[in-house]
Amino acid sequence: MTISNQENILEVRNLCTSFFTDEGEVKAVDGVDFSIEKGKTIGIVGESGSGKSITSLSIMRLVQEPAGKVVDGEIVFKGENLLTKTKKEMRDIRGNKISMIFQEPMTSLNPTLTCGEQIAESLRIHQKLNRKEARVKAIEMLKLVGIPSPEKRVKQYPFELSGGMRQRVMIAIALACNPELLIADEPTTALDVTIQAQILELIKKLQEELGTSLMIITHDLGVVAEMCDRVAVMYCGKVVEYADVKTIFTDPKHPYTIGLLNSVPRHDLKVEGELSVIKGSVPSPFELPSGCRFVTRCPHAREICHRELPALETKEDGNQVRCWIHTDQWEKQAEAVSTHE
Amino acid sequence: MFVFIIRRLFQTIPVMIGVTLAVFLMMHLIPGDPAQIMAGERADEAQLEQMRENLGLNDPLYQQYFRYVGNAIQGDLGTSIRTDRAVTEEIFTNRIWITFELALYGTVLAVILGLIAGIISATRKYSFSDVSLMIVALFGMSMPNFWLGIMLIYFFSVNLGWFPTIGWESWKHMVLPVLTIGTGGAAIIARMTRSSMLEVLDNDYIRTAYAKGVHDRVVIYKHALRNALVPVVTIVGLQFGTLLGGAVITETVFAINGLGRLVVDSIRMRDFPMVQGTILVCAVLFVVVNFIVDITYRLINKRIELN
Ligand SMILES: Nc1ncnc2c1ncn2[C@@H]1O[C@H](COP(=O)(O)OP(=O)(O)OP(=O)(O)O)[C@@H](O)[C@H]1O
Ligand code: SF4
Ligand SMILES: [Mg+2]
């Protein structure tokens, strides 16, 4: 339905990824659309379990089969659908054209390999460097991500480094081959607040220097405000609002986005229990409401919301929202008794 | 590391005391008079007294023990009643090397087969090959050595005539005994490798490796196996020890003149110094192997342990 845009490095169209468990199918990602412009940053926000990580793993084609599977959609990277790529072609893309940083710096590095070896590995695979060249480049990368005395660090094992240092090493690994797209899945959640800021700054600085496009997954709206150009808000496997960052903060449309924002009165401060304002909790993936997924927690819910899933409507400004309030249908609806008051 | 080795070395001291004590007391705890047993049924009282005097059996027990240990440290484990040769000579000229070879090849076989099977199983979880390998492993673990040995002889020596039934001369002689002694270990190592590997494959750093574009094979052998091997090494060490024990049965079945058979024969002939000596040597060997394994383990594990 969307026409491929030359400016877009990545276009995700109707992505559906499911897990097939003993209790049934879990539609972890259910028809997600978004795109990333070259050199720009997109933020994916949403509560735990909304499908953010699975979206990113689907792009990398790293969803663990056979339990999980991308069942539908297209992932168009530079005009080519990644879902039709062979294993070998995907290997050539991973760590080279698209890289990923994970949430858990403490466990994401191999404990039996030195930091240098782990950085050098991608260089040797993708840039065919020999051992010595790769080592030199690894030291260069460590310097680039701001690790002091890189000649010494290159020989150290992950356990010898702090969490923040390890995340820097992860960034060095991810950026070693100068990827066109960097996916950062909650890169700072596990770190101290002061370290968080440093890491984000580093990512931002390197992104600007290297011209990398960035997809950043986060719980933290402060991070979004700081880093992103566009934002996709996810809820229960679906995008509920997709807009430029200014609109998200000044004129949010979806009740869920509004709830998220209200729960963080000041985005420059990290607030514990940030979702306390939205009542109730995320429904179980096995008991999703048949209409709007947010209906069990939405203060505005009317009868139609229970009955029918709203479509993701595109506004004149190109922003999208998935809510009956923002359709012509809404006024025709009789005010229904709110579900939880 | 140096400190660790020294500390570990000191830890073997109580073990060694226990072992020597047990071996020493064995002679005194079995019913009857050692002198009587050694001198034989028809010895008269004077001969017995002479025997006791020779063996120092009239001295207090602790003196006897210290003498025993003192001699042992100097490499004197007494004289065989049966052959009249020094026990150490009997053990070290030939026997111990045969047993060592048997246990070593058995361990090597167990490690190779076990690792291969474990890796195949882990990387194809719940597939046909995984399930069948694990069933075979279960059999391998529960099969007693003597039975397996006899079955192998029956099929491969008697029926097919591929290998000789007894002895320890050429590689052909070695195939069946090594199979017999290695199978149980292979099965245990296979199961251990599988579970350890599955656990490791679930780790975040495996996902990181895939995200770097590393080939599946490299992920398994470089990233996963290294970490998965840590618990397997311990098993291998224990396995080697168990194999020394298993040698008794295997050597008997295949009539191999190793340590195990020496113990059995000596017990039958009531050659007590020989029995004591052999058991002591085996025990020391076991302690030494464990010591080496602990150090190896530490070398591999150093990085993880501090984590
Ligand atoms: N291996 C799996 N088996 C079954 N279901 C899974 C599996 N992995 C993820 N899911 C389902 O997919 C949904 C989305 O998971 P995902 O990890 O993408 O959430 P997330 O938005 O990244 O959350 P978080 O903020 O906690 O990281 C979860 O609700 C979960 O039920
Ligand atoms: S569609 Fe209805 S329930 Fe869903 S968010 Fe909009 S108002 Fe709330
Ligand atoms: Mg996640």
Automatic annotation (TrEMBL), chain A:
Q: Which Gene3D superfamilies match?
A: P-loop containing nucleotide triphosphate hydrolases
Q: Where in the cell is it found?
A: Cell membrane
Where are the coiled-coil regions? Answer: none
Q: Which residues form the ABC transporter domain?
A: 10-261
Keywords, alphabetical: ATP-binding, Cell membrane, Membrane, Nucleotide-binding, Transport
The cross-references to SUPFAM superfamilies, in alphabetical order and at most eight, read: P-loop containing nucleoside triphosphate hydrolases
Q: Which residues form the signal peptide?
A: none
Question: What membrane topology is annotated for this entry?
Answer: Peripheral membrane protein
What is this protein called in UniProt? Answer: ABC transporter ATP-binding protein
Q: Which organism is it from?
A: Cytobacillus gottheilii
Tell me the organism's taxonomic lineage: Bacteria, Bacillati, Bacillota, Bacilli, Bacillales
TrEMBL record, chain B:
Q: What is this protein called?
A: ABC transporter permease
Keyword Hydrolase applies: no
One example of a Gene Ontology biological process annotation: transmembrane transport
Write out the GO cellular component annotations.
Answer: plasma membrane
Similarity comment text for this entry: Belongs to the binding-protein-dependent transport system permease family.
Q: Which PROSITE patterns match?
A: ABC_TM1
- Its membrane topology: Multi-pass membrane protein
Where in or outside the cell it occurs: the entry states: Cell membrane
The ABC transmembrane type-1 domain sits at: 96-297
- The answer to whether keyword Transport applies is yes
List all membrane-crossing ranges.
Answer: 12-30, 102-121, 133-156, 171-190, 228-254, 274-293
What organism, scientifically named, is this protein from? Bacillus mesophilum
Q: What is its main location?
A: membrane
Q: Which UniProt keywords apply?
A: Cell membrane, Membrane, Transmembrane, Transmembrane helix, Transport
Q: Which domain of life is it from?
A: Bacteria
